[in-house]
Automatic annotation (TrEMBL):
Keywords: Cell membrane, Cobalamin biosynthesis, Membrane, Transmembrane, Transmembrane helix. Its main location: membrane. The gene is cobD. Belongs to the CobD/CbiB family. This is Cobalamin biosynthesis protein CobD. It holds the Pfam family CobD_Cbib. It comes from Zoogloea oleivorans. GO terms for molecular function: ABC-type vitamin B12 transporter activity; threonine-phosphate decarboxylase activity. Pathway: Cofactor biosynthesis; adenosylcobalamin biosynthesis. NCBIfam families: cobal_cbiB. It is a multi-pass membrane protein. The chain crosses the membrane at residues 42-60, 141-163, 273-294. It comes from the Bacteria.
Length: 297
């Protein structure tokens, strides 16, 4: 786990030929093939299985074939599955112009990482959206993969990343994907259920703990996503900032429940959110190391 995280810290995401780009093309071909059978939930489940399971099975078979190959594969797959450095780079690319007073530049960089309309956001709106993205993606891009790596090794991290990618491709409540993408959305929810709550607990322990736990308990149930709610409410409470509220997605105003308690976030709170995520990574490493030592004692 430490080696995979170190590789991510040193190199970040591959600038060219990222494996997820290739997987996205493969998944699009799988979708075209299976849609010939229909667009119901059963076909969507079969398509998900064809897109994800062969790669996980291949990784698993290679992993058990040789001890050293298994070690290299585990480290490589975890490096492929996480995006800690990328998350920090994208968030700081918003914070830097925002701190310099370049609101149009900050809006533009924010539009690269969120799906909401950023054109009319003020400084607080930009900071809020960025902090929300950091907290939520801390789970989606880091801790979910770390959890499944701890459970199943590299194939577990690979399974989580591919499932998360398919949720981003197919997990929409649109006419096209409402039924076909149902399995991708639900499987991602299941795989994220425990990691999201461990992430929320980590955020709570490393900030304003009582505030974070109270926000988690009272605010998470009102959030649409069963996993983003705990993560973002606990993170907002830990940072002592107010998140959530109205946002425009695809031209439609969405009234979201409030998250957290405290002042509206500013540009400086983006870095505080990144520090919270990084400290949570250290906490997870320490816990995994302790469990490993105790289990072999």
């Amino acid at each position: 786990m430490a080696l995979g995280l170190l590789l991510d810290r040193l190199f970040g995401e591959p600038p060219r030929f990222h494996p997820l780009v290739g997987f996205g093309r493969y998944a699009a071909a799988v979708e075209r093939l299976f849609r010939r059978l229909g667009a119901n939930r059963g076909v969507g489940l079969l398509a998900w299985s064809a897109a994800v399971l062969p790669w996980v099975a291949l990784a698993g078979s290679l992993r058990i074939s040789n001890l050293w190959l298994g070690l290299v594969l585990d480290v490589g797959l975890l490096y492929f599955a996480i995006g800690s450095r990328s998350l920090a780079e994208h968030a700081r690319a918003v914070a830097t112009p925002l701190l310099a007073g370049d609101l149009p530049g900050a809006r533009q960089r924010l539009s690269w990482i969120v799906s909401r309309d950023t054109r009319e956001l003020d400084e607080t709106g930009v900071a809020k959206a960025t902090v929300e993205s950091v907290l939520e993606n801390g789970n989606d891009a880091i801790f979910g993969a770390l959890f499944w790596f701890a459970v199943l090794g590299g194939p577990g991290a690979l399974m989580f990343r591919l499932a998360n990618t398919l949720d981003a491709m197919w997990g929409y409540r649109t006419e096209r994907y409402l039924r076909f993408g149902w399995a991708a959305a639900r499987i991602d929810d299941v795989l994220n259920y425990i990691p999201a709550r461990l992430t929320a607990l980590s955020y709570a322990l490393l900030g304003h703990t009582s505030n974070a736990l109270r926000c988690w308990r009272t605010q998470a149930p009102s959030w649409d996503s069963p996993n983003a709610g705990p993560v973002m409410s606990a993170g907002a409470g830990s940072l002592d900032v107010a998140l959530g509220g109205p946002a425009i997605y695809h031209g439609q105003l969405e009234e979201r429940p409030p998250l957290g308690a405290g002042k509206p976030p500013g540009a400086a709170d983006i870095d505080k959110a990144l520090v919270l995520v990084q400290n949570s990574i250290w906490l997870w490493l320490l816990v995994v190391a302790a469990v490993s030592v105790l289990s072999h004692a």
